[in-house]
Structures
1.
Amino acid sequence: MGLSLSHFTFLFDTLGSNWQYFGQTFSVVVIERSKAEQKAGQGIEIEKPALKVVKLMGILDKLNERKTGEKGFDLVDQQSRSYGIFEVASTISLTGALEIMGGGLTEVLYKSADESASVTFRFETTIQSLRQTQDKVIVDLENKNNKTIKVEEFDLVVGADGVKSRTRQLAMGSPEKLNCFKSVGAFVAYFSIPKDQDWPYSRLCHFTDRQFYGCGQ
């Protein structure tokens, strides 16, 4: 069975529970528009169902080696005065026992998949069109270097390229057409900063007018 994915992280989220049978079942082509695997990304908590998946995949030890080591978060006011520290895995803690940066997770997943003879990565490639037949999906793949188009057939295409997935739009239409987004009047900005003196705790501050400030590791 041929399988195409537009972002390789989803490969393991979808099929991780059957990882031990993966090479016997699927021939996988992973499509990535960048030159190499993505190493950026913010903190990700691996817990509950996801923890079971990574155990079955045999990569739990590798993920533990890459975890942030954050011990919890410190609730502070606008003058940075502490109102309480919430340790890892406490009832309302924002930090899980296995927190890893997005880049670290990607690296572990990529290396694990790359060891399989049934998985092929194609970097600097994008999906240009999808055509559904009775039992196949016909995909036009463009190489970004030479702008050539290659037509291939797959049994299944999985789009995992973000909230406004281009692959999803090719299959189902634009978000505007589907009317699938509803604004709740909230805005979130993520950015990276160096570790500071508060390590190994992150900080959370609730400002007036429904504003939150979080400083993680």
2.
Amino acid sequence: MADVDEKLRSFSEHEDAAGTPPITTLKLDQHGFPLRPQPSDDPKDPLNWNRWLKFFTLLQVAFLAFLGPFTQAYINSAYAPLAASLHITIVEASYQTTIAIVLAGVSPILWSPISNVYGRRPIFIFVSAIGIAAHAAAGAAQSWGGILAARAFVGIGTSAGMGIGAAVVADMYFMHERGTYMGIYTVFVTNGAHVAAVAGGFTAKDIGWRWCYWIPAIIVAINWLINLFCLPETLYHRDPLTGRSLQPSRSWLQLFTFTGVHIQRRLRLWDITHVFVMLKYPSVVLPTIYYSISFGLGSVLFAVTGSAAFGSIYHFNTAQIGMAIGLSTFVGTLLGELLAGPVSDRVLYLYTKSHAGVPKPEARLQATWPGLVILPAGVIIEGVCLQYKTHWSGPVMGMGIAAFGLQIVQTNIFAYMTDCYKPQSAEISTLLNFGRQTFSFTLGFYMIPFATATTYGVAWSVLAIIDAVLYIGIILLMWRGREWRERLGPPKFDRDI
């Protein structure tokens, strides 16, 4: 980052090593600071798009990310009637969500390198088509084995938005505004499962559990048609320092077909490992670990334990369970974003202003301090309230507080990591998704038994303490993150994205 900043300051006076003509006018943001990254002069460059086209594209990709956890979790409130119908236990019924979560975490490891070569749009269209077929197959399946197999493909078919969606945000938005728009994306990611809890509960109660498969199939199909005609390609190749375009001009129509990407190289099998190569960078591995645990506690924990906890303690039906979990976390997430994206961008601006126009991604991490306290506090509140069987509003309030804290953490982590390694944003998005999904799917196996063996208060508090301890990694990055990045240098791949 420091090396890039120095080169940005000297653009108007020198040529680069390759002999590129000097830039006479450095493109600046509204505060007079150099834009990062520097956009090309091509109006088809996503960085130069009209703000409404950017926002429309953001909403489409964010909704794709929303549909992942939404469709995977839509059935969660209907475990009991499904289990009774198929003569299995409720624990066995939960495996259909588990297998979808796992495959949604693993699949983007393949989508990421393909999208860096052939574009984001083909991946979104192709993967969503798999999702439509998989949801329909789950709804039509007559055996438990058939449902499990279909749900595995549901995970694959809803993984693209969750896995590489953040890369699209980085494709379109500059560093100084990335917190706000990354926050919008992460709100959708988090709330998919929350909204599913409400909608799925009423669906199972009023028209039957099989419609918990058919309704997501219909929604994904309608969204696929919208994406087919309205989702543009955002992958663009430019010089990482000068912003000079490195690809031929393309028409607006090409952006909405499958010819909008100038293929610079062939896909190699080795490209699949790029996601894991990123783990050698402290600015990637430490936030990924912290975020993965935080997301599990602030969102998934409530989804996978809510049916058992609220059903046994408060005797809620499926609709009531869905509302208790979904509404509290939905409201908490929305309120949390008010102190996440805009605050993150403001903190970065104040740092940049006080340091001669040179930003430092680690400045964003200062905005995560409230999340350190609020997220674990909400988890503990819910656990203690469940343990002492307080009024149901107690654990509901705890879930909302935890979701509030999670959103503060999540937005800043996504923005920070893509600020550090913007060309590798697809790998970063995939890695965050992999960590989130991998940890989350395990919670359903041990949290209720853990609470039974101890108490809800003890079990929930243990996880909250672990989450708080892992924040030490974020503190280390505030202190030495820039030094570590400069010492290791940037990754050698995908530098022109």
3.
Amino acid sequence: MSETGGKGVTASEAPRESAKIFTMLENNPEVMNDLAHRLGVTKELSFHDVYSLYDSDMLAMVPRPVFALLTTVPMTEAWKQDRDAEDAGLESYKGAGPEEPAIWFRQTIIHGCGLIGLLHCVSNGVPSEMIVPGSELASFLEKAVPLGMDERARLLSESESMYQASEAVAQKGDTEALKPGEDSINHFVALVKGLDGQLWELEGSRKGPLNRGSLGEDEDALSERALELGIRRLIDIQRKAGGDLPFSCIALAPSVE
């Protein structure tokens, strides 16, 4: 199952690429937890490493329930062909307002995909109800949610507080950050269980949020069904093309003291 969701209006003029150039974030718990908590996600939630998508013992190490997965995936030719074929049949997203089944941000920010991936994880599902009132994130979402796709992208690109928060954690990764003008082959993809019980695939460079199918009440974002509908689907696309898909994955779940 794959479709864009929501109703609403977009701005009449698409936003231009943001003048700000962000420092690419590394997809690891240290970086993303610092950013999430700086912005106003409750410290009752944290990101945790996911070391395997198939080994039951390693999967058991992740606290449950898992509300979202934040992954990075390289743009292989096989995945690009699959994306292009899927996007060709979709209209650009027109969702806006609190009735949206998934809050989605279009990416216009250079190297801003890590920040957008984090926003997708914490702005949807159960985590969206665990944001500290009066925080920077709460204030930002109050402004962003009523807006259409283009206006929302413009709000994010012009937010100095979001930029400063992202830059403050950007040097915490284990690898050297990309320099301005350098490109990454990796895309941040968030896989989130929405309040509607659907698994949403959220990436700022697609045409909108993608509904990958329904999850049961006892199935979280790291359940067998969610993995098959989400990240394992991408791995299978590459395997059918004759190769492996290197990826990173962290899970948003209850914090562990």
4.
Amino acid sequence: MAAREVAYVIATGKRTKWQYFDPSHYHSILFDQRGSGKSTPHACLEENTTWDLVSDIEALRQHLQVQKWIVFGGSWGSALALTYSQKYPERCLGLIMRGVFTLRREELEWQYQKGADMLFADYFDAYEAVIPVNERGDMMKAYYKRLTGDNEEEKLSCASAWKYVKKAEDPKWQVLALAFARIECHYFVNGGWMKEGQLIEEAHKIKHLPIIIVQGRYDVVSPLKYSWDLYQALGGDKNPNTEYNIINAAGHSAHESGIEAALVDAADKFKLLKG
């Protein structure tokens, strides 16, 4: 394994796709973070923080005897990629990130309190409906109270509404929806267990690394400003190590053709990196 480049693909609760990386060149490593996928105990919130995940990633690197690797992540995975690389920059060959998310309060409130509702009012009504009016001043807190409570029916109702996942009404999806909602809300209501703006403030720790950012122009989940702020914190166009790509006809999904093409191109460029 150490004889060739290693692309580490961060799973974001569901298994992240690895097809962007040429298997003849890369050894892709995927893992299910605590409480998700095949990790047990399922949906457990105890000892489940961003820093626990970072420790897990580093333990995985040591276990696999990888000296350095490329860190890849999109959306929540980009926040985890940034956290890991800022703590262990000496273990990173470079980063590829898509739909950047940095855990700032304004980012969380955009999606879960006020902002995205201006574009998706029809969905947001259902999201608000499960919370009493007098608790809607802090929707994440109100959801967390119910997702970690003892009322099983209320838990499932909130899990379905958390991400507007209507499939959660189907019993076969309920377990997955509950795990997703509980873990995500757990992380967000606690601000990722880091100080406000930390991932932007500490971007200087990785500005020497090759970094490629892929951003959809019409990303509503992670609006362009999040990745733009990171790009500027990395030195912007004055930093030759950082490449910033805006995909004009795209949003947040990694499956959009423009995003996919840009990620494959980034992976191909990183073939030149040597550990």
